[in-house]
UniProtKB/TrEMBL annotation:
Transmembrane segments: none annotated. Keywords: DNA-binding, Transcription, Transcription regulation. Signal peptide: none annotated. GO terms for molecular function: DNA binding. GO terms for biological process: regulation of DNA-templated transcription. This is HTH luxR-type domain-containing protein. It comes from the Bacteria. The keyword Transcription regulation applies. Residues 137-202 form the HTH luxR-type domain. The keyword Iron does not apply.
């Protein structure tokens, strides 16, 4: 039996599954401070997630596929079968063409790279919450094929043409041709305008990418979930000082770290 989506104006129930304790605790704290969400639970493994969904019936599941998207597909298929209206948001570190195809067949709503950071994930979840609470389905404009929707979605997520070609088993030339057709159908003349138009039509969920020269190093930790000094609803951001060089963002003179509003977080990196 399919799950009924969130009633108009009600809180969106979120279940979080991640083997990374610090990440799931931090995400749960961030969402708990938002007026749109209620976190029904955050668990470490698939059996616990199934039990949580059976018990609480979430509207949205955040699945951290740190072990690989392919390994997550059987569980995601089970969730989609049991709850046909549930929103599935999958965070990944690596994505192969087979993973992309399998996710599409299972019915994953959104794939987001973990490299985009916590800010991008929170913005994405807010967009899903707005749709769930309004009771309005995401439109699919006439004339845009499934392949074209995949390409504009991957483009909006920041993937270059070569990576899109690899994920969709196409040549870069074919991807470029497809993008030109998308521009014509959306009545735009550039990639940035096409992305903006796709967002307006509800085709993609877009979050800002990290600015050049101010990227989060792969080894930097998420902010500590035990730092309770920030007010509810605080958004964490990875920031660099103005002295950071674009050509060498890891220069010894740069000051980098998670920040909470204007106050530096405890997790610092110099």
């Amino acid at each position: 039996m399919g799950q009924v989506s969130a009633p108009i104006g009600h809180l969106v129930r979120v279940a979080i599954r991640s083997p990374r304790r610090l990440f799931r605790d931090t995400l749960a704290v961030c969402l708990s401070g938002q007026p749109e969400f209620t976190v029904v639970g955050h668990v470490a493994d698939d059996p616990a997630l199934l039990g949580l969904c059976d018990l609480c019936g979430p509207d949205l599941v955040v699945y951290d596929a740190v072990a690989g998207v392919g390994e997550a597909l059987p569980l995601l298929h089970t969730l989609r079968t049991r709850y046909d209206r549930i929103r599935l948001v999958v965070i990944y570190e690596r994505l192969s063409p087979a993973d992309m195809s399998g996710s599409r067949q299972v019915g994953v709503d959104t794939l987001i790279p973990c490299s985009h950071g916590l800010d991008a994930l929170l913005m994405l979840l807010h967009q899903h919450a707005d749709t769930l609470r309004s009771g309005v389905a995401v439109p699919a404009p006439d004339g845009l094929s499934a392949q074209e929707r995949e390409i504009i979605t991957l483009t909006a997520a920041g993937h270059p043409v070569s990576r899109i070609a690899e994920l969709l088993n196409m040549t870069p030339f074919a991807v470029e041709n497809c993008k030109r057709r998308i521009y014509q159908k959306l009545a735009v003349t550039s990639q940035s305008h096409a992305i903006a138009r796709a967002i307006t039509l509800g085709l993609v969920n877009r979050a800002p990418l990290p600015r050049p020269g101010c990227t989060r190093p792969a080894a930097s930790p998420w902010p500590s979930s035990v730092d309770r000094m920030c007010p509810p609803g605080t958004t964490w951001r990875w920031r660099c000082s103005p002295s950071t060089s674009r050509s060498s963002p890891t220069a010894a003179t740069a000051t980098r770290g998670w920040t909470c509003g204007t106050r530096p977080a405890r997790a610092r990196c110099r």
